[in-house]
TrEMBL record:
CDD domains: catalase_clade_3. This is catalase. SMART domains: Catalase (SM01060). It catalyses: 2 H2O2 = O2 + 2 H2O. Its cofactor is heme. GO terms for molecular function: catalase activity; heme binding; metal ion binding. The active site is at H55, N127. GO terms for biological process: hydrogen peroxide catabolic process; response to hydrogen peroxide. Belongs to the catalase family. Transmembrane segments: none annotated. PANTHER family: CATALASE (PTHR11465). Residues 8-391 form the Catalase core domain. Keywords: Heme, Hydrogen peroxide, Iron, Metal-binding, Oxidoreductase, Periplasm, Peroxidase.
């Protein structure tokens, strides 16, 4: 039997007794000189960091992205060249629930990907849905407030949720998905993933293309009804975490087919929809899926807190050949995600193993809490300098983005059709899926004031009369179309 290592304090001092505090006699009080006790208690008090404001309950795993098709004409990103294999990390999550929430709840699922490329970390912070509830980040904090606890009752408030959604018609597309069978997946392995936002590709000719990212589960889509999920939650709140961990442990590695949609930069303005609107999808008839490769998860983290809880993914992290877009929500998330991690984990979060790039890093950022790495060139701690410090490289400049118009607060609802795509989605559903949608609305709207319910039904009716009538019937409301005109 191998000799066991000696227990030490955080400073490395060997601990002689880890069972008994130092006291004044066998019955006496504990002495303050027992620094081993004080260190353990002080560390325990700090073992939790602030949980994420959203996507707090999550699971993660490592794997690889393998590029099987040639898309070099669209992007010069090394990570996306045919034959390339890149280490990946994927964090799944629910959106609204706290860390102690059950996995099997009706909610959007986060699908946050990191690729450790030779040019730095590329992060894609998406969901299992291609759209979102709002298109302007000015409304994002308001939306999140409705998903959290009521300040007086300290309970979740369906009234707040439906009040906000019924006053925000742009949310109907995402609400329709959430209330459908796909709002309650059986596991993280059985969901699709989307970058959701519009991003950009830059090729070797310095040409820009707009791009959407898709990850289609190769395990198949599997969902639960509310009743099935309630039965699971009754005896296991970690259904998704357990399924993902155990599947990988036994070698049943989940895979997703990675595809993209490509839009030439010049196509902006040619369609009825805004390609940078997060509440809209690009119809596949306009921009068909182009297969790129395979994403596989094949390794579980060794320590959940260090590698999943402290994971700090942000859409600000891109690499040459991949860029951002005028998507208002993406523009805001470039700031807000990185800032959330600075608050939650610390200004040096990128130095933690799960966040550290696999390529060399050269910055002029200094100091801050939990600084792990120093500057290898202590004389070059500012820029410009004469001491061989890192310098900019014009080769990585993106082509200019054409913009126009006056700076103003433009009403994003003016002239925006927020009903066409939810209606199209509804019409794709089978009769059984439609009935489940209606009943899920009924379960989610229990106790919500009738005026709010009626307002939401009016939105459903605008998307498709059968949609509105079905929700109205499920809610026991005889909805009259003239209600819309009276609003």
């Amino acid at each position: 039997m191998a000799k066991r290592p000696t227990l030490t304090t955080d400073s490395g001092m060997p601990v002689s007794d880890n069972q008994n505090s130092i006291t004044a006699g066998p019955l006496g009080p504990v002495l303050m000189q027992d620094f081993v006790l004080l260190e353990k208690l002080a560390h325990q008090n700090r073992e939790r960091i602030p949980e994420r404001g959203q996507h707090a309950k999550g699971s993660g795993a490592y794997g690889k992205l393998t590029i099987t098709h040639d898309i070099a004409k669209y992007t010069k990103a090394k990570v996306l060249q045919k034959g390339k294999e890149t280490e990946a990390f994927l964090r799944f999550s629910t959106v609204a629930g706290e860390r102690g929430a059950a996995d099997a709840e009706r909610d959007v699922r986060g699908f946050a990907l990191r690729f450790y490329t030779e040019d730095g970390n590329w992060d894609m912070v998406g969901n299992n849905t291609p759209v979102f509830f709002v298109r302007d980040a000015l409304k994002f904090p308001d939306f999140i407030h409705t998903q959290k606890r009521h300040p007086r009752t300290n309970m979740r408030s369906p009234t707040a949720m439906w009040d906000f959604w019924s006053l925000s018609p742009e949310s109907l597309h995402q609400v329709t998905i959430l209330m459908s069978d796909r709002g309650l997946p059986q596991s993280y392995r059985n969901i699709d993933g989307f970058g959701s936002h519009t991003y950009s590709f830059i090729n070797t000719k310095n040409e820009r293309y707009w791009v959407k990212f898709h990850f289609k589960t190769m395990q198949g889509i599997k969902n639960w009804t509310n009743a099935e999920a309630a039965e699971k939650v009754a005896y296991d709140r970690e259904t998704h975490q357990r399924d993902l961990f155990e599947s990988i442990e036994k070698g049943d590695f989940p895979k997703w087919k990675f595809s993209i949609q490509i839009m030439p930069e010049s196509d902006v303005g040619k369609h009825w929809y805004n390609p940078f609107d997060l509440t809209k999808v690009w119809p596949h008839n306009d921009y068909p899926l182009i297969e790129v490769g395979i994403l596989e998860l094949n390794r579980n983290p060794q320590n959940y807190f260090a590698e999943v809880e402290q994971a700090a993914l942000s859409p600000a992290n891109i690499v040459p050949g991949i860029g951002h877009s005028p998507d208002k929500m993406l523009q805001a998330r470039i700031f807000s995600y990185a800032d959330a991690h600075r608050y939650r984990v610390g200004v040096n979060a990128d130095q933690l193993p799960v966040n550290r790039p696999r390529c060399p890093v050269h910055t002029y950022n200094v100091d801050g809490t939990m600084r792990l790495a120093g500057n290898p060139n202590p004389d070059a701690y500012y820029e410009p300098n004469s001491f061989n410090g890192p310098v900019q490289d014009e080769r990585f400049r993106e082509p200019p983005l054409k913009i126009s118009g006056d700076a103003d607060r433009y009403n994003h609802r003016d002239g925006n059709d927020d009903y066409r795509q939810p209606g199209d989605l509804f019409r794709l559903m089978t009769a059984a899926q439609k009935e489940q949608l209606f009943q899920n609305y009924r379960a989610a709207m229990q106790g919500v004031p009738a005026e709010i319910v009626t307002r939401q039904i009016a939105h459903c009716y605008r998307a498709d009369p059968e949609y509105g009538a079905g929700v109205g019937k499920a809610m026991g409301i005889d909805f009259k179309p003239q209600t819309i005109a009276a609003e």
